[in-house]
Request: fold
Amino acid sequence: MSIEFRGVSKRFADGTLAVEDFSLVVPSRSITVLVGSSGCGKTTLLRMINRMVEPTAGSILIDDADISEESPVALRRRIGYVMQNSGLLPHRKVIDNVATVPLLNGVPKKQAQSAALTLLDTVGLDRSLADRYPSQLSGGQQQRVGVARGLAANPNILLMDEPFGAVDPIVRAELQTETLRLQRELDKTVVFVTHDIDEAFLLGDQVVILQKGGRIAQQGSPAEILAAPADDFVAEFVGADRGRRVLSIQQVDGVDILVDGDGRPAGRLGGSATGRRITETARIDETKAGARTASGAPAQGERAS
Amino acid sequence: MNWLSNNLDLVLELTIQHLRLAVIPIVLGFIISVPLGYVAYRYRLTRGILLTIAGLLYTIPSLALLIVLPAITGISVFSDLNLIIALTIYAVAIMARSVADALASVDPGVRQAATAMGYSSWRRFWTVEFPLAGPVMLAGLRVVAVSTIALVTVGILVGVESLGYLFTNGFQRRILLEVLTGVVMTMVLALVVDFLLARVGRLVMPWSRPQRASQRQVAAATAEAVL
Reply:
């Protein structure tokens, strides 16, 4: 289930050009993250995939078939969608929310509900929550229900629109880990939209950094982008020139400690507390990345290597 | 007290008649208001026009409307139907705005989610937007119910009998208790219907109960509808 954007543009009725001549191939069975600041058109691009937004030019293909030839309703029912603030139907119990799409597709209620219960397990929710209403759940639980609902019709494609933007950092980290686990288990083609570059690097097999108008500033694996930012915009956006991304090695009591650009300890270099089992490659990688991206003064006490 | 004990049957009969005259316009008004309210909510241009007309309708004095209506409909001034039509007009005048506000109160995020799940627009309206507009619509309907029950009494001035009969009859015969009975019974009827509507609302919209915040929104919307 690969998705392809071919020269897609979107001009809204009020004249704003949200996306201009955008082309991208989203490979199947992997996570592609569209990341950029607000107004870069990332959500518009995502919503074009299930025809919530119609492009004004260009075409979008799923497995080489133009989606404009399929009915939007049918298309949406075979594409999972997870949104910010869960978007759960407040008047339906958790179980019925999860079963929404199967029920729309005419699956008998009993069958849809028992499948929904299994899905609660899949996303790590207790079955006892099934009969609650969404308002009776925490934000993190609601997002999990949202994910379960997105998966309910067993779609090959899952669209995620800043799904974890509104939950607290601890829950967000949990949900991110779960997303990676689910992707490994279920093997979906995921398109994920976020403004958080850390989230993008954590989740993305392919990361697409967007500028205004949906212009691709750079695309590639997180490692590729971090190793060689295409331009100053990307370098600044991913923070390659500062802070946590500029790691250097500092020796404390004979142990190599990694410190970030501000001199704050970020971790220990691949060893145990006592020994110095530093793998040579890891060390070289880290220092190379540090050397390439370090632009300012070296962090205090940086050890020359 | 003598009058009351001698006339219990009359009071009961008038109460039932009163209820019948009120319930039909409440139900009709609601049914007519749904499409009107939808159009007002959906199309910006019609919103102002429709809701202004509805608002103006409500300012027509009831007695005047009862007398003018037959000229348009050809129905006798003295018939129940004439009163029912007039009361339905008032109900629509309040309820159309209420439905429009109620539909606008539905979280756009939920509406988008329903679209993204693959609801057709017809199905989305009836199974998502309409039920979610329920609490605010119910608030409007309760106002309509109480207002209609009060207005039914005016019918006696054109000879349509209801609890209003006790006002005029009691006034002519100088029986204060009869007038008071009419007033109290009208109020009791209004309170009972209002209470029943609230109960039914809680029964069919159990999801609207636990959330304090949404109840506050309903209260605000109710206040807005009343003002």
User: Anything to note?
Assistant: The two ends of chain B are 40 Å apart (CA to CA). The interface with chain A takes residues 107, 109-110, 112-120, 123, 128, 131-132, 134, 205-208, 210-211, 214 of chain B (CB under 8 Å). Chain B has one domain: 2-226.
